[in-house]
């Protein structure tokens, strides 16, 4: 499968905005007469595309891998078992 640089470009910006959502970079700042919490609200509003974007891209890349894989069943089973292992580790940590 060939690398898609357009997806990488948008992933960069999605990562940047997800970090901005979690850090509130303009807290306590006044820029050109605009208080920082208004800028943070603006960033948090427009940056919400990050998580759904990663969800859609993951599905797209998984589908592309399935379509180009020689043995679809083995790849799907390996992916499913890895996901199940990760979920079990997370659930175990909360119990």
Please sum up the structure shown:
The protein is mainly alpha-helical. 76% of the residues lie in helices and 4% in strands.
Radius of gyration: 19 Å
Number of strands: 2
H-E order: HEEHHH
Approximately how much beta-strand content do the residues carry?
A: under 5%
Description:
This protein is mainly alpha-helical and 95 residues long. It is built from four helices and two strands; from the N terminus they run αββααα. It has helices at 5-23, 36-46, 50-68, 72-94; strands at residues 30-31, 34-35. It has a two-stranded antiparallel sheet.
Which terms would index this structure?
single chain; 95 residues; two-stranded antiparallel sheet; elongated
Give the helix/strand layout:
Layout: H1 5-23, E1 30-31, E2 34-35, H2 36-46, H3 50-68, H4 72-94
Antiparallel strand pairs: 1-2
Helix pairs in contact: 1-3
